[in-house]
Design a protein that fits this description.
Chains A, B: It catalyses: deamido-NAD(+) + L-glutamine + ATP + H2O = L-glutamate + AMP + diphosphate + NAD(+) + H(+). Chains A, B: Catalyzes the ATP-dependent amidation of deamido-NAD to form NAD. Uses L-glutamine as a nitrogen source. Chains A, B: In the C-terminal section; belongs to the NAD synthetase family. Belongs to the NAD synthetase family. Two copies of one chain form a homodimer. The first copy, chain A, is of the alpha/beta class and 595 residues long. The first copy, chain A, has helices spanning 18-34, 59-78, 163-166, 171-178, 195-210, 309-327, 341-354, 371-384, 394-403, 408-430, 440-445, 466-478, 497-501, 521-533, 538-543, 548-560, 562-566; strands spanning 2-10, 39-41, 86-93, 108-116, 119-125, 146-152, 155-161, 182-187, 213-218, 220-223, 226-229, 233-235, 241-244, 251-259, 269-274, 280-287, 333-336, 359-363, 387-390, 433-434. In chain A, the strands form four sheets. In chain A, strands 13-12-9-8-7-6-16-15 form an eight-stranded mixed β-sheet. The first copy, chain A, has a six-stranded mixed β-sheet with strand order 5-4-3-2-1-14. Chain A has a four-stranded parallel β-sheet with strand order 19-18-17-20, sandwiched between helices. In chain A, helix 6 crosses helix 7 and helix 6 crosses helix 12 (466-478). The longest helix of chain A has 23 residues, at 408-430. The model of chain A has no long low-confidence stretch (mean pLDDT 94). Chains A and B meet through helix 2, helix 6, helix 9, helix 10 and helix 15 of A and helix 2, helix 6, helix 9, helix 10 and helix 15 of B.
Amino acid sequence: MAQLRIALAQVNPTVGDLDGNADLIVEWSRRAADAGAHLVAFPEMTLTGYPVEDLALRSSFVQASQRALEKVARRLADAGLGDLPVVVGYLDRRSVSLVRAGQPAGSPLDAAAWLHGGEVLVRSAKHHLPNYGVFDEYRIFVRGDRLPVVRVHGVDVATVVCEDLWQDGGPVGVTATAGAGLLLALNASPYERDKDDVRLELCARRAREAGCALAYVNMVGGQDELVFDGDSVIVAADGTPLARAPQFVEHLLVADLALPAADPAREPGRTPVEALDGTTITVERHVLTPDPVPAYDVLPQEAAEPLDGLAEVYGALVTGTRDYVRKNGFRSVILGLSGGIDSALVTTIACDAIGPENVHVVLLPSRYSTDHSVSDAEELVKRQGVASRLVPIRGMVDAFEAELELTGLAAENLQARVRANVWMGLSNQEGHLVLTGGNKSELATGYSTLYGDSAGGFAPIKDLVKTMVWALARWRNAAVGRDLPFLHPFEAEPIPEAIIVKEPSAELRPDQKDRDTLPPYDVLDPLLVDYVERDMGRDALVAAGHDPALVERVIRLTDLAEYKRRQYPPGPKVTPKNFGRDRRVPITNRWRETT
Amino acid sequence: MAQLRIALAQVNPTVGDLDGNADLIVEWSRRAADAGAHLVAFPEMTLTGYPVEDLALRSSFVQASQRALEKVARRLADAGLGDLPVVVGYLDRRSVSLVRAGQPAGSPLDAAAWLHGGEVLVRSAKHHLPNYGVFDEYRIFVRGDRLPVVRVHGVDVATVVCEDLWQDGGPVGVTATAGAGLLLALNASPYERDKDDVRLELCARRAREAGCALAYVNMVGGQDELVFDGDSVIVAADGTPLARAPQFVEHLLVADLALPAADPAREPGRTPVEALDGTTITVERHVLTPDPVPAYDVLPQEAAEPLDGLAEVYGALVTGTRDYVRKNGFRSVILGLSGGIDSALVTTIACDAIGPENVHVVLLPSRYSTDHSVSDAEELVKRQGVASRLVPIRGMVDAFEAELELTGLAAENLQARVRANVWMGLSNQEGHLVLTGGNKSELATGYSTLYGDSAGGFAPIKDLVKTMVWALARWRNAAVGRDLPFLHPFEAEPIPEAIIVKEPSAELRPDQKDRDTLPPYDVLDPLLVDYVERDMGRDALVAAGHDPALVERVIRLTDLAEYKRRQYPPGPKVTPKNFGRDRRVPITNRWRETT
């Protein structure tokens, strides 16, 4: 056996920020070197950020990524880090490309490179391209066909990229054939509820398949609708977990591994291998340092505990909100605070994300607002210490009504739109990003006003059903005092109990309650989860025990609300399906599950 | 040679309207029978409409399509049309499917069927799946691997679907091997400027490759952002055009063809053939009627002239608007009429699409509106006969300003948002669809107000640069009296000359002009076309002769406006790239073409 100290740099790059991401690579490589690592690996597409979507088709962007890679290799050497092998994901292209209709322009590659001695030692690219859910990679990438195996201190280390682990056949099987001692997987694997367990099992299975230890480095941070949770992990050849990084923070996971020494008879060169998926993959061997390091004392193993269910979701929401604000160049946010649970939770998430001193709320009472709405909102302002102002909307609504005869729903929507005008105006005047408070239950059923309460730049809880909103509010209050990296240190419960227990109301007409329009949330929400997240049809929903009349009603509401959902701002995705680009149904569609 | 009278039913189905689309199939099959046709073909996915996007992944929808196909076969027989072979596109699934990560759930197929004698004779599916631009079909379909060859009155007729023509290898080459006498191609090929010429050349090339005549039937009508222009065509084995249908109207193209008689030695059965694209396609032969029909007198050939450039674009805009309104269940539209060119053109398009009696406009003068804005708008109302009302916004703006200190851009945006509140309120009250008037030049550069002038349900001219708006306004005035199916019979020029010649202004502050903020449109627009539609990078733009400083400025504006574009309603797509789902760039993106 040979000893190897590896470092997995679980970092948070920004899409398109080539200079900033290069700085990250140099800085975390330095930390790895300081920790005595023999090798450091970064996530998939660290240099460009992920996902780059159609930017991959812009030739100037691909060239910028290629140039940035060469430059970061030189910078590492100039910084005295030339001896440390650095494995990093970036965007490249196939140099000899087939020009064919339907092939992505310029044949881009979701690539990985080994940097060493100021140069790019070897380049490879993701072989299996995901093309489902949030992924559309057949659109922007062509597949890689190479497996690098690099000998580092006498250990043969192979590298693959993300989806290569999720599909059968391809580079993982070839790794076994190639007899590697360690498989490094570079990932940008988005967070979904309970995905951590799935990933750990997958890593264990693929390690056994590859016949060697597997080191899985994942991205962390938010990018538009996606949140990456980190949770990087190392497993032994038999699938046993060896080390694990915490979720939702940048982290350097350093681990000492005892790995099989490479067979010296395996010499540098290229060998094509059948990949058992109808393709051929070329194993490309390099030798950096042929001999094992002298024996040394190992570090204690680090094994972060994965977060429990609600903590994990809350962490994803805070991370998504923080990075959307920050990476889009904002420092502060503004939102309407109604006294209801949704805007209360969004305010709390915003405080946890960017600090109460950067959170601005507006209380916008109308003639239908109850006294407790205003007083509950004021109590929350006091507890959280956010900047607050009161803008009564009565005069503005009156001015519209002087010119227009609006009744019923039109009159209700007017109030919601007047409120949106106020927060958009303050956003334009003062430069805050507008947060909007809609949840998935109201978004799915269309229980919101287009250009009203749905208006804004980012929707932190758009992927939470209402019962989850309550559960997270209670969780957050109970979490006061816990040492989690995504919580602001409030000293008392940030959300007044009165806001959590009150009956939900839009307060757009006298005595209005959500239940006048919608089924009770504890009945509605499980049905929405089955319909929207599991894509179950009418018959399957009824068979699963949902009330047939309710199924008809909710499907009708949900299918009709499609247009409104299309106009909704991004928000963090925490469930397997949300609304947005991973559920694409035509707006014009006459087919109904129900008749 | 054998004679065959074929009918191509260029129809306009609606996505999801299985019953309505089945009615179309029965009705147009009846027309084909009445015209003495021996065979009728419908476009790709006629039974379901196209594109169905993620509806293809909903198992209940696939089943509904399969059942609807069986039912329409029986209905045709019940209507006495059982002897007429009917070839129709629908949604099916592969019965034995590989369950693998990343494969579309349920293995859906973009299928085609031959209906005859009340039954489904043979089923096949699109082999080449487009996955670029507006298409993402790797996401929702698996590929077909069968080529039906059906003997009809002694002629072997093969069928393929749309993209099968656009890619090399696959079913077209196999058609030659199979020795077919006619290749039927079922299409839903979206309109793009000047695509008609490309398609005709493609058909000629593929006919020569298949070694037989080719009949190309295309969908017509609008579906969300896509517009199908029809333009169905038949070419001889040497590529010579034989018949052509008009654009933007439903049409039955009937043509008498003299085709090679089938070799009787080729008997029914299945034969696998190498498809020269790495796959195998099974030729499935059927014999319906082995012997040629007795000689008969042929009909005169029909050859519609394709429309000239501007007429074609205008036809696409009217068709897209008409079908978006109608297919979404609206009868009328409402929009703000400013006195400027954009809202004037949109009003005219709306009148052409659904008639002036269904078009409602609102004049919303502010303190900065010029007198000529109101009088020019009133002149247009008079010429077009639309329903008009005047709602001054001064009082509403004053009411906001009484509560908020808004200056500069925030104050300008407020006015635009107050206007949007008015038309959204009237829409909610009276049930009209809101049209919005933004053009591609202002959309690209961000020169519009989110939730203000950009608010609405459909954006008819979102894919036109400003100079094109002017050109189409002049074209429409000059087209008075022309007999085109997408023009309302105005007796005089519908757009006042004063509106066309005035200098563009948003009129949100005193003496404001577009040129205060934007470069002149005759300089800006060609640059936007190169950057947005051709995806050229900075260096390429400069090399193409654009002013370097302007390139820097416009790229900066355009990249920063990404978020606003995401919130924009659909509109017809008439250029190869527009904004919307066929240009997907992350909202959070720090990379700039310029520094």
